[in-house]
């Protein structure tokens, strides 16, 4: 017996096996799992079926087994005796009951329009006024309407949102932005003891809104969920009187030709024409929209630039006001509303605030003639300059100290003015 070669082959077998597998093993990518490392074979293209009139295909359906050379049989769709949602197949869009030949352009909570505020003004037939009016800002400037130790408590609210509410070195924006807004709302609601009308309000979240209107030959809708809604039992008083409303008739809406006004809007054909919904039942005790609060940065998949955020504020304010006007005055277009419908909006990214006051004067939006709606817009108002856990040091010099730097009390007074509007 030959024992020497056999023992040597046995000792070298593991090495040969490792060498053989070394050349066959696929390359491993460390950023994906092992199952995704291999290259998948491309799918074969489906063959096109050719139907020749007068010729009948010969299939192997009668033989109950596969026969080479014969075509694959085509069986009719099997219908179950009951309705099973797991196997439901929707009909084509053309056969659906909500299908309309004229498309509808939808503005939803993730729409980022190209032209920003200018596009929103044209879609809503609105005249823009820069800055909030003095009669509105005077509500927060009065010492009788301010919170006790207001500046100190606001800075504590900022510290709580940026430093005290997390164990991370830098909290994400989606966390401190929402925390700061709720802290400021809690400070404003502490004035309920001196202002009893503040108790007749309700804060709603994740409510669905739908508003439809026509501009020229196009149909538009605002639908979806926007931020927080502060609703009240009494409507907001308008800022512009009857004379100022009639003066808007001479205002000319700005166009942005050659850009289409429908750019960046979703196009659908399944919708209900002239559909209006405030998102609440008719017997809701707080039917009037007071203030909308928008948080920029909460959704990581959809970031808004400041002009796009302001356009979103205008569009949803207009939609809430239009849905309320439809409930009060009916679906017929009104040239001039007897009592304008007003809605406020506040947008923030956790540091900078945007303020808007929208007044709906007309529901006749088909053309550019007649009375226009109005909006007052306060842009890019910072609450503080920076909030850092550690100072920024360069070349042995402290450029930005730690903590909250550059606190501006005027911003919270504007925030408080919009909250107190209608209750003072």
Automatic annotation (TrEMBL):
Transit peptide is among the record's keywords: yes
GO cellular component: mitochondrion; ribonucleoprotein complex; ribosome
BP GO annotations: translation
Superkingdom field: Eukaryota
A GO MF label: structural constituent of ribosome
Main location: mitochondrion
Location(s) in or outside the cell: Mitochondrion
Key words, A-Z: Mitochondrion, Ribonucleoprotein, Ribosomal protein, Transit peptide
Cited Pfam families: PDCD9
Family membership noted in the UniProt record: Belongs to the mitochondrion-specific ribosomal protein mL37 family.
Protein name: Large ribosomal subunit protein mL37
Lineage per the UniProt record: Eukaryota, Metazoa, Chordata, Craniata, Vertebrata
């Amino acid at each position: 017996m030959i024992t020497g070669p056999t023992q040597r082959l046995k000792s070298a077998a593991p090495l040969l096996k490792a060498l053989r597998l070394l050349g066959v093993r696929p390359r491993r990518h460390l950023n994906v799992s092992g199952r995704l490392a291999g290259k998948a074979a491309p799918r074969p293209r489906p063959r096109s079926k050719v139907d020749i009139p007068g010729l009948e295909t010969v299939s192997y359906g009668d033989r109950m087994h596969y026969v080479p050379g014969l075509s694959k049989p085509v069986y009719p769709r099997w219908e179950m005796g009951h309705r099973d949602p797991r196997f439901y197949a929707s009909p084509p869009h053309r056969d659906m009951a909500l299908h309309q030949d004229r498309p509808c352009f939808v503005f939803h909570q993730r729409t980022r329009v190209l032209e920003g505020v200018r596009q929103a003004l044209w879609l809503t037939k609105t005249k823009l006024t820069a800055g909030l009016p003095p009669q509105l800002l005077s509500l927060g400037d009065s010492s009788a309407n301010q919170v006790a130790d207001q500046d100190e408590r606001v800075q504590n609210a900022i510290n709580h949102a940026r430093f005290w509410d997390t164990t991370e070195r830098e909290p994400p924006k989606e966390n401190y932005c929402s925390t700061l807004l709720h802290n400021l709302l809690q400070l404003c609601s502490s004035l309920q003891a001196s202002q009893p009308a503040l108790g007749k309000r309700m804060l709603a979240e994740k409510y669905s809104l739908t508003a439809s209107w026509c501009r020229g030959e196009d149909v538009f809708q605002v639908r979806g969920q926007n931020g927080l809604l502060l609703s009240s039992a009494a409507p907001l008083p308008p800022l512009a009187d009857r004379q100022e409303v009639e003066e808007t008739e001479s205002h000319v809406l700005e166009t942005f030709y050659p850009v289409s006004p429908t750019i960046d809007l979703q196009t659908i054909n399944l919708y209900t024409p002239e559909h209006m919904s405030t998102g609440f039942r008719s017997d809701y005790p707080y039917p009037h929209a007071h203030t909308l609060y928008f948080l920029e940065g909460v959704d990581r998949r959809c970031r808004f630039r400041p002009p796009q955020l302001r356009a979103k504020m205008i569009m949803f304010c207009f939609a809430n006001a239009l849905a309320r006007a439809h409930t009060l005055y009916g679906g017929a277009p009104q040239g001039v509303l007897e009592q304008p419908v007003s809605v406020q909006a506040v947008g923030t990214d956790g540091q900078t605030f945007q303020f808007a006051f929208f007044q709906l004067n007309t529901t006749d939006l088909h053309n550019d003639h007649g009375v226009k709606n109005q909006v007052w817009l306060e842009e890019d108002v910072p609450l503080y300059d920076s909030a850092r856990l550690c100072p920024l040091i360069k070349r042995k010099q402290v450029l930005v100290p730690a903590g909250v730097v550059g606190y501006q009390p005027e911003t919270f007074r504007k925030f408080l003015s919009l909250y107190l509007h209608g209750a003072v």
